[in-house]
């Protein structure tokens, strides 16, 4: 059986040209979009110190209450010998422990968080702090608060039926006030 005769060469050629032009337009749009996304990543990284969390550190979510750095007495803000502070927090259904984190202004702050149950989120609006808290891993974020103030700290990863009520706060106090606070006052956000 004879094949259907091909269309006239000129109409086939213009069809191909139209396809090529469409593909080129999509290619340009795609490359443009990729360049824009790359520019956003580079700009936020340089201008706002926003980086993808890079800390890969494992922890056993079953035993973290019993021993190691996330036992109850270690939670909250601890002063380090170099003048910086480390804040240890547990994110669990449906709250943060402690639920108020008191830190000094003008000081390097390292947050270390983990979860014993499901994935939670740690976000401080208007700062570079934004990470997931994944069970089995320690999330670590470094930041610095220049001025005293208060930050709401909502869990921003849906973690179950009580998710909407899961939030805490960070209270930044003047640097000279911080050393006088006891460990208990720090986790209760005395003065806030
Ligand atoms: Cu949560």
Brief digest:
This protein is of the alpha+beta class and 192 residues long. 24% of the residues lie in helices and 28% in strands. The strands form three sheets. Strands 1, 2, 3, 5 and 8 form a five-stranded mixed beta sheet that branches. A three-stranded mixed beta sheet has the order 4-10-9. A two-stranded antiparallel sheet has the order 6-7.
Keywords:
192 residues; alpha+beta; five-stranded mixed β-sheet; 2 helices; 10 strands; 24% helix; elongated; binds copper (II) ion
Would you kindly provide a written description of the structure presented here, covering whatever features stand out?
With 192 residues, the protein is of the alpha+beta class. It has helices at 9-48, 183-188, and strands spanning 76-79, 85-92, 95-97, 100-104, 108-114, 120-123, 130-133, 139-144, 149-154, 167-173. The strands form three sheets. Strands 1, 2, 3, 5 and 8 form a five-stranded mixed β-sheet that branches. β6 (120-123) and β7 (130-133) form a beta hairpin. Bound molecules: copper (II) ion. Residues 91, 120, 155, 159, 163, 166 line the site of copper (II) ion (CU). The site of copper (II) ion (CU) has 6 residues, from loops.
